[in-house]
Amino acid sequence: MHNKQKKIPVNTMDDFFRQGIALDRNPISKSDFTAAFQKQEATQSHRDEGYTFHILEKGSVKIEIDFKFYEVSSPAVVYLHPDQVHRMRDIEDIVVCSLSMSGEKLNTAYLDILEELSTAIPLALGAEAFTAISDCFALCLKFYHNKAARLHPLLVRDSCNVLIGLLLSEFMNQKKPQDVFSRYDKVAKSFRRLVEENYRCLKRAGEYAELLHISTPYLNECIKNVTGFTASQAIQERIMLEAKRLLYHTGKSVKEIAFDLGYTDYPYFSRLFSKTTGLSAKAFRSKNLD
Question: Do residues 135 and 190 both lie within one domain?
Answer without folding.
Answer: no
